[in-house]
Predict the structure of Putative pre-16S rRNA nuclease.
Amino acid sequence: MRALGLDVGTKTIGIALSDELGWTAQGLTTLKREESDEEKDFKAIASLVEEHGVDSIVIGLPKNMNGTIGPSGERSQVFADTLSQYVSCTIKMWDERLTTVAAEKMLISADVSRKKRKKVIDKMAAVMILQGYLDHKGN
């Protein structure tokens, strides 16, 4: 069972991949998004699914702190619905509250420069989304 984790933003998509046993998540890449060519994002993800033998995708669902879903959460749900037209694997939404904040704190504590943090923050958030899902599924 291999899973792909996605942290979908308006400018980038952080991507993480699980190991073959579905125990650990590792950062894979960050896709830069282009408003004029959204289909490119879906095709790139479909290519990764094929290349790595992925059978499930976990997409971060940004919720408000009170548990409601706001505009960014709705965008993630629309993204998931559209992605389902490009891949045949299972797509799950996962509560991603505070994952970017936690990823930022982790990188700061590791003394990663601001410039380097900006390059990897989305990928780290994807790792945290996917790892949270894998940990929950394992229990």
Q: What stands out?
A: The radius of gyration is 14 Å. The chain has a mean pLDDT of 88. The first helix runs from residue 38 to 52.
